[in-house]
Design goal:
Largest sheet of chain A: none
Shape of chain A: flat
Distance between the termini of chain A: 51 Å
Structural class of chain A: mainly alpha
Number of strands of chain B: 0
Number of domains of chain B: 1
Distance between the termini of chain B: 62 Å
CATH superfamily of chain B: Cytochrome c oxidase, subunit III, four-helix bundle
Shape of chain B: elongated
Oligomer: heterodimer
Strand content of chain A: under 5%
CATH topology of chain B: Four Helix Bundle (Hemerythrin (Met), subunit A)
Strand content of chain B: under 5%
Radius of gyration of chain B: 19 Å
Number of domains of chain A: 2
Order of helices and strands of chain B: HHHHHHH
Largest interface: A-B, 47 and 48 residues
Order of helices and strands of chain A: HHH
Largest sheet of chain B: none
Number of helices of chain A: 3
CATH architecture of chain B: Up-down Bundle
Structural class of chain B: mainly alpha
Number of helices of chain B: 7
CATH class of chain B: Mainly Alpha
């Protein structure tokens, strides 16, 4: 990516649409929290939060328009985070 | 003299810093997950004691402020300096409202004897003590990030005003924005984990 030419300017309409989607997802996650879905409570809540986080990352943080260096290093960080959380949790869940 | 200005390099540096922040909060979320596994009912009861209304309001405030920060970058690149300043001021105020809500929220809990190492918590069930301990550590650390983010937004505001940040040179505004979005990202996970757990 040529550093002299930064990534494209994101139109206001796109930003407003992303905000609208984020607010709708917030409403959904609050609504879902009133339903008792048993074992699915936490996974559904985390799935909605991840969808919101993805919107913020892709559009507000311009990740969609970044070069390979930032995209790859970000995915690497998320993989490390997943390893940290899942390996720790496996230990706790199966210790007894 | 032509001074090379590597906007991409500056952003990569910021992202590297953000990765350390992700791992910092990730560690705290691991702690949350481990204790949630151990005390599921205490965590659910603790979550019900928190105000969903204030939590939801703060979520909306942070999402709107993230949008206005992103829009301020669009504005400066369209050479709309006044609009950029207005959007930054709105974002900064959103941060202030967020902290004000947190102040009332914490104050209300303190008034009920729920604060770190309080007799109500240490004398009560272990799960409840741990839930509120994590609540204060994570929302406190997040609040500190809101304060730092507001400082960066204020700095960007001044530099835009002084024409030090322009449509051609806006890396500092962009990096302040990235930091602010990270604060928003963390809250996106804090809100359901603390306020919405059944």
């Amino acid at each position: 990516m040529d550093s002299a030419e930064p990534h494209p300017i994101i139109p206001y309409q796109t930003l407003i649409l992303v905000l609208a989607a984020l607010l709708v997802l917030t409403g959904v996650t609050i609504g879902v929290s009133y339903l008792d879905l048993g074992v699915f409570n936490v996974p559904i809540t985390l799935a909605i939060a991840s969808a919101k986080a993805s919107l913020v990352l892709l559009y507000f943080m311009h990740l969609k328009y970044e070069g390979i260096a930032i995209k790859a290093s970000f995915i690497g960080t998320i993989c490390f985070l997943a390893i940290m959380i899942s390996f720790t949790f496996w230990d706790i869940a199966f210790r007894h | 003299m032509a001074h090379r200005y590597d906007q991409t390099g500056i952003r990569i540096g910021m992202w590297l810093f953000l990765y350390t922040e992700i791992i910092l909060f990730g560690g705290l979320f691991v702690l949350y997950a481990a204790y949630f596994h151990q005390y599921p009912s205490a965590f659910a009861d603790g979550g019900r004691e928190l105000s969903r209304g204030i939590g939801a309001l703060n979520t909306i405030i942070l999402l709107v402020s993230s949008c206005t920060v992103a829009a301020s970058i669009t504005a400066i690149r369209h050479q709309a300096k006044r609009l950029c300043l207005l959007l930054l001021a709105v974002s900064f105020s959103c941060g202030g409202f967020f902290l004000l809500n947190k102040y009332f929220e914490w104050g209300y809990k303190f008034a009920h004897g729920i604060y770190p190492n309080s007799p109500v918590l240490t004398g009560g069930p272990a799960g409840r003590n741990i839930f509120f301990g994590l609540y204060y550590v994570i929302t406190g650390l997040h609040g500190l990030h809101v304060l730092i983010g507001m400082t960066l937004l204020a700095l960007s505001f001044v530099l835009v005003y002084k024409n030090k940040i322009t449509g051609q040179r806006f890396a500092l505004l962009e990096n302040s924005g990235l930091y602010w979005h990270l604060v928003d990202l963390i809250w996106i996970f804090v809100f359901p984990l603390f306020y919405l757990i059944l």
